[in-house]
Structure formats: structure tokens, C-alpha cells
């Protein structure tokens, strides 16, 4: 009979074997599909009508692959839509897929072959192809191409406008009767990107029906007006995009992969279609240079002009405001202010634009200051523009304007003359041109010349402040340590104190002053060992020193005894040689003591 | 003793600063030929020979000249000659060198308007850090670093004002952090540079592959910001708040 422990060990053993098998099997099972890497290309559905679309898929099975460039196919538009991935584990078998999807939109009927497409993946490459058949729509058996079902046409009311002259553009959208659209139009380009003034705003003006070659079309007219900033030929070929509503029951079910499903649970879906359009070339004529008057300030169109001034009675140095109003049809926003003839009798300031509540007019205000009482009138102001109806330049002149200028004393005139500074401040930049060039630089910089803060010496010098800070921190730390530890501070003072007294002893020796010599030697011992062992002056004795420095017993005993005896005259050592020897012995003993770490 | 240390430190700091600025003044003197070319270009511009002016300014740049006046004037010449992409490219480079120059900003704004392109709208933080150029931020950081170490050293030496000096050193420490952030902001232009669209009819696509769905049109000479790129020469850009992919051949990098 097995006991309980044997049963438990057997159960654990089986459990370990089971999990080991499971892990190994899983690893094996997951490794097997790696051998079965493959690439497939398919189009779903393979049969569609002209108004339908299909989804092309490239599937990398059990491997990974990047997006693939699909070669162009005449009659098909293939657009990349993105990638997705799938991982499945069925019966412990793992399989994975990376799927790249492309949307296929036909523009004519026929049989198409997409490919061969070379697909590279980890471990190999494969060429794949796919077939697609496009048939006529069920409700229009005659149509061979989308452009026969819906298209657009653009035209203008002015074939050769001038620069800045407005011209109308009509865009007609033809849709075969019976085809449903959702009524929204959007323009996706085909309009010149530069040279036009502002963005074009298209409005649907009306809808009508028109018969073309026995087929009824619903015609939507979109209208806008355009102006150009430069002369030249401008090509218009707008790409109108609209959404065609297609009943779902008339269409083949091909899954939910189509990203353009408009109405998932409804019975209709919408499909965006970009219409073909003719190219309209508008040749914009430049404003002629011949016969252009000096007073031409860029006006193109048909305009009126009037000028008012005020006040009409001023003192010399006082400002007079000239208001110039230009109104009519044309490029009002491009017109620069008419110029007032400069004169020594006047000081002129920059003209500024006044805001106007009335459309189709622009008002300029200019400050003019008569500088002397000899001024009797403000000269006539001329405004010239190019008349697009008559194709010639016209000049409108206002004035001269009589004014009365009163003489004032010189000093007063100077004071008043400072007033116009406020006008200068109010004058805003018209913003009709770029700011002028910058003057020659004071010094030339080259690409190779490094800035001072990018040179190697500077990088090195950056280390100095940090090092300096470290040194300061070290000094400060040492100072703090000494302030808090009296024994350590006194220990550091000991050699210095000893040296000082030994020098005293040497001097006494030279002077043959025996008493002073031995007194200095005794002070050497007291000061040195007092500091060294942190003892009070009265505590320094041979026994106290020996208790703390037992390594030098003999030398210290001899030194203390000799100095003390000679100091009190107990023992004589009067000759100079003895004194010298004693000095040397003291120095040597203290050096020995200094070497002892304590 | 303390006064002696403070004096020594000040002298050291002054020595570093002056030696640093001496380097600045060692830039080569004006070469007559460069000045002549510059003046010739200006004369050509004044005579409305804009193409010639642009060629002369380009000659200076190709000769290794790196003055913002040349970049700016070249941009003006290109603008007057009707070459908006190159004009905006050089205006933008000039803005990088002198971000507070009102003339450059006004002309860039004008040129972008003329191109019908949306102007980049920087965030509040980008606007703040954009007030100084990258070099200026570096100089602020260096100045703050020297001041920081000086204040700390003095604080260690002069016990009576120790804590005042330590508290005061927080100011340059904060400046070091701010200027590092400013430098990093400019560094982003190296990592995710700006590009100028140089081909008309450019359309940003949804994916980095030919035939991908068109997303939106990008006007000629528009300034776009890179988000990412791939090895096949595609650049993911952001323009007017929208992302899309363009081929590198349609755009030119602003940051060198």
C-alpha cells in the first residue's frame, strides 16, 4: 500500500509531465505554421457593375509583409486603404495574417487583370495576380463609361479679362436622369493654386433638365467669379466630387469590407465619384504699359472719385486732412492711394485706409501740413485707373482746394508742428508689398566659423566654475569640521606651535641664553603635546603623554627628564654642543611622534 | 579674507566672459569681394533685375556665407521674381536666425498670404520658446550656469549671507532649466523639420504608397511640419491641422 506522501508525489509528477507536454506541444504547434508562409491576392467581388467598386486584398499568411505598389491598370483606379492583421488559435494551432487592402474603382467596363505583383515577405517572394470583370449597370445598358452617365463642363462669360478684372465661371454638372445623388458637391482641385485673388466660392444657382443625344440629364449650375493677380493663361479643370446613391438590393453583397458603406443597416449606400470635366483656359491680359498715366495707382475696373478736405482755415503748421474716396466696381483692395504733388510749402504724411461700411468703396485719409502762410490752395489730386469696358486709361481729377493759412510766430509754429506725430502713430502699414532689403552686414559669418560658445576652449572653460565650486565646497566643509571638532583643530595646530617654540630655542642658543633656551624647549613640549593630545596647559606631564603615546617611552622619558632637570638647574649641560644635541633630539623625537597616527 | 575670495571669483568670471567674447570678435574681417557681390545684388534688385539679384545672393550663400541679411534679401529677390517656394524657404531660415525680427516675420506672412498657404500656428509654449533663437537660449543657459556657480561659491564662502545667496541661486537654476527647454524646442526642428512644398498640385495621401487615397491638396510654397518619415522617401506631414503623406521630391527641407 502506498502512503499519502507517495500518492501526493505521484500526482505532482503527473502534473509536471502534463504541463511540460502542453508547453512543448504549443511551441511545436506554433512553429509549424511558420513553415507555411504564403501570400494571396484576391479581388472581392470579382464581378461588378460600372457604378460599383471592389476591394483588392493582399494577404500575408503566417508572415509579415510591407505595403505593395500595385501597377497601374488602364480603366481602374486602385487606392491603398490601410492594413489589418488577424491572429487565430484553433485546436492549439496558431495562424496569423497581415492584410493590405486597396479600393478598386472602375472607370469603364471590361475584363481586367491586376498584376503580376511581386510580394516580398520574410523568407521569400511571390508573384500574384487577380482578375476583375466590370459590366454595364443594370439600369443603363448603353453606358460604357462613367463619363457617359455623369460629367461636368466649365465655361466663362469673359474669355480675355484683364488683370484684377472680375470674370464669371459657370460649372455645369450633368447627371443622367434616374441616377440619384445626395445633392452635395465638393471641388477637389483643378483650380489654379496661385495667381487668383482669394478663394473661389461656388454657389449652386439653379437646376434644369437638358437633352443631349436623346438622353435626359439633370443639370446643376454652380457659379462663381474670379480675379487674377497676374497676367497669363489660367487653366481651370475643376474636379467635382458628388455622392451617388445606389439602392443596396441592386448590388452584389460582397461583405462589409468596403469602407464606403454609407448606410449600414439601410437599403441604400452612397458612393463618391469624381466627375470628368473639360479644361477651360482663360487668357488674362496685362494692363498695358503704353499711355499709362503717372497717376495710375493700380485701379482696374470702373470707378468714381471724390475728395474732401478740412479744415479749410488753419494756422501754418496745423494739419489739414484730405479724404479721398474711390468707389465703383473693380479691384478696390489693390488700389494704392492717389499721390498728392510734393511741395516745399507742404509737409506730407503717409496715407492710411479708413474703414468703410459701404461695400464697393475705399477711403484714404492723408494729413497735409502747410508750412507757411503763402499757401493758398491744396493742389489738384488725380486718380487714374484702367477702364476694362473701354480698354483704356481714365483720369479723374479733383481740386485744387482753396485754403486760408494764417501766419504764426516761429516758436508757436514749432510747437504745433509736433502734433502730427500722433498722425504718424495712427498711420498703419498698408501691407501691399514686402519690406525692403536689409543693408550690408557689419561682419561676415561663414558656415564653418563656429560661434564662441561652440568652440573647444569654451567647452573646457565650462568645467572651471564647477571645479571652483568643488574647491569652495571642500574649503567650507573643512572649515565647518574644524569648528565642530576642537581636538582635530588643536591636532592641526600642534606642529606649527612646536616649530614656533623651536625657533625661539634656536634664537636663545645663538644668544647663549641658557634659561631662555630650556624655557623654549619646555614650551615646545607643552604646546606640542597640549595641542596634539588635546590637553589643557596644566595637564601636560610625562605620565599623561606616555599614557597616550606609549610607542616613544624611552625617547620621551629622556627628553622630558633632561629638559626639566636642566630647566631647574638640577643637571648641567652648559656647553653649546650639549644644547645643540638636545635641540636636535627634541626635533627628532617630535618628528617621530608626529608620524604616530592617533 | 571673504572680500578677497569674492574679488578673486569676480575676476575669474570676468576672465571667462571676456575670453569668450574675444572669440566672437575673431570672425574674419569684411572681404571686399563679398561686399561687392552684396552691393551688386542690391543694385540689381533696385533695377528690378530680380533673377540676377537672387543669383548673386545665392552665390554668397554657396560661398559659405551665413548671414541672415543674405537669406532675407535672397528671399525678397525670389519673392519679387515670383518664386514663392524658395522665397518662403529663405524667409523661414532667416526667422530661425532672428525670430524677433519684424521685417522677416512681416515678409514671411506676406509671402504665405500670396501663396494662399496657411500660416503655421504655434502653441503658446512654442511661441514663448520661439522668442529667442537656439543660439540665444544657449547663451542664456551659459550665463545662468556661471551665475549659479558664482552664487553658490559665494554662499559657501560668506557665512553671513549664505542662505540668501543659496536662495538667490535658485533663479539662475530655473533659468538653466528654461533655457534647456528652449534649446530642446529648437532641437525639435532638427528631429521633425519643417518643409516647403516646391511642386504645384501636390496632394497629401492617406498612406505612404503610390495610389493611396488622396487626402487633401497642399498649396505650392506651403510650410508643412514633418511628423514622421519612412525609408522609401515618404514624409508624413502636418498642414493646417491635417496629417498626410508626401514624397520627398515634392518638398524641400527648411532646417539645414
Task: Give an account of the 3D structure.
- The complex is a heterodimer of chains A (598) and B (256).
- Chain A starts with a helix and ends with a helix.
- In chain A, 27% of the residues lie in helices and 35% in strands.
- About 7% of the residues of chain A have low confidence.
- The radius of gyration of chain A is 53 Å and the shape is flat.
- Chain A has 598 residues and is an alpha+beta fold.
- In chain A, the strands form eight sheets. In chain A, strands 17, 19, 20, 21, 22, 24 and 25 form a seven-stranded mixed beta sheet that branches.
- Chain A has four domains: 98 residues, Immunoglobulin-like (Sandwich); 135 residues, Immunoglobulin-like (Sandwich), CATH 2.60.40; 131 residues, Immunoglobulin-like (Sandwich); 112 residues, Four Helix Bundle (Hemerythrin (Met), subunit A), CATH 1.20.120.
- Chain B is 59% helix and 14% strand.
- Chain B is of the alpha+beta class and 256 residues long.
- The longest helix of chain B is centred in the middle third of the chain and has 24 residues.
- Chain B has three domains: 88 residues, Tetratricopeptide repeat domain (Serine Threonine Protein Phosphatase 5, Tetratricopeptide repeat, Alpha Horseshoe), CATH 1.25.40.10; 64 residues; 60 residues, Roll (SH3 type barrels).
- Chain B starts with a helix and ends with a strand.
- In chain B, strands 6-5-4-1-7 form a five-stranded antiparallel beta sheet. In chain B, strands 2-3 form a two-stranded antiparallel ribbon.
- Chain B is flat.
- The N terminus of chain B is likely disordered.
- At the A-B interface, strand 4, helix 4 and helix 5 of A face helix 1, helix 2, helix 4, helix 6 and helix 8 of B.
